[in-house]
Specification:
The protein has a six-stranded parallel β-sheet with strand order 1-4-3-2-5-6, sandwiched between helices. The longest helix has 16 residues. The protein has eleven helices and nine strands. It starts with a strand and ends with a strand. By secondary structure, the chain is α/β, with parallel strands linked by helices. Bound molecules: adenosine monophosphate. Adenosine monophosphate (AMP) binds next to helix 2 and strand 5.
């Protein structure tokens, strides 16, 4: 298993493979890998001859310094998990200074409004950080395809927009959400939950499923209220937002139109840990 810390060394390795006509799949991650990440890596391995997994906790996409400090970093375990998938995987794990060429700041993007909804409202500047780091990674790796989870559905749409804006010649592949047994979406942040919180957080997905079940025969405002009531008196979980939005524009749905695709989005705090999830409704 090759671990590259420097962009130049990575470039050298990838150029050799590219010259030999091999296709390259990139899976960008912040490490603390779990089965959700691994499902992306397996998808990339099934569609490409070379797989690059980047492991980089990107400071510019964190609006909360304590969240950045406490973000789990488990490099050894990550390497073991990737070795179990395939020993030929290339890991790119640069320092911030190296990746950003010493200038660790975000560029400012216009994602056509996608960046101001939901996560964008609650994490100001977040998508500028995401766009900046992914632009650098796409240039460093120059992949044929890059793999992203629907777990961060808004991010997936923003990345598609980024590719359009910057004119990157690559395909973005969206992959389904992997869940724990109780339905909780797998996340690196789940490592920070107490066992009680982890158990309780199953209600996030069961609420989304309930909304999907009643979507066709209830109004948006009634569905909204239904979710708010679940969390109102919850002893361990606090609802930050619940929104039903148009899947393409991410704008909140006020009324339902048959031709549109809708998705429910939710963010919940368990103590200090912020959990997000989403589910397609029609
Ligand atoms: P992260 O390390 O949290 O930045 O995630 C790296 C990639 O893995 C992103 O594209 C995420 O959407 C994806 N991902 C994270 N959790 C899951 C999950 N439970 N199922 C599928 N993909 C996931």
């Amino acid at each position: 298993m090759k671990v590259h810390r420097l962009k130049n060394n990575l470039l050298e390795t990838l150029n050799t493979r590219r010259d030999a006509g091999r296709s390259i799949g990139l899976v960008p991650t912040m490490g603390a890998l779990h089965r959700g990440h691994i499902s992306l890596v397996k998808e990339a391995a099934s569609q490409n001859e070379v797989v690059v997994v980047s492991i980089f906790v990107n400071p510019t996409q964190f609006n909360n310094p304590s969240d950045l400090d406490k973000y789990p970093r488990t490099m050894e375990a990550d390497m073991d998990m990737l070795t179990d998938v395939d020993t030929d995987i290339i890991i790119f794990a640069p320092s911030s200074e190296e990746l950003y060429n010493g200038n660790v700041v975000s560029k400012s993007y216009d994602f056509g409004g996608l960046e101001y909804e939901m996560e964008g409202k609650h994490r100001p500047g977040h998508f500028n950080g995401v766009g900046t780091v992914l632009s650098i990674l796409f240039r460093a790796v120059n992949p044929d395809k890059a793999y992203f989870g629907e777990k961060d559905f808004q991010q997936l749409q923003v990345v598609r927009k980024l590719v359009e804006i910057e004119g990157f010649d690559l395909e973005i592949v969206g992959c389904p959400i992997l869940r724990e047994e109780n339905g909780l979406a797998m996340s690196s942040r789940n490592k920070r939950l107490t066992s009680e919180e982890r158990q309780a957080a199953g209600v996030i997905y069961s609420s989304l499923k309930e909304i999907k079940r009643s979507f066709s025969h209830n109004s948006i405002s009634k569905l909204q209220k239904q979710v708010e009531e679940v969390f109102e008196k919850h002893p361990l979980l606090r609802l930050e937002y619940f929104e039903i939005a148009n899947e393409n524009t991410l704008k909140p749905a006020l009324r339902k139109h048959k031709k549109n695709h809708y998705r429910a989005f939710i963010a919940v705090f368990a103590g200090e840990v912020r959990l997000i999830d989403n589910l397609g409704l029609n």
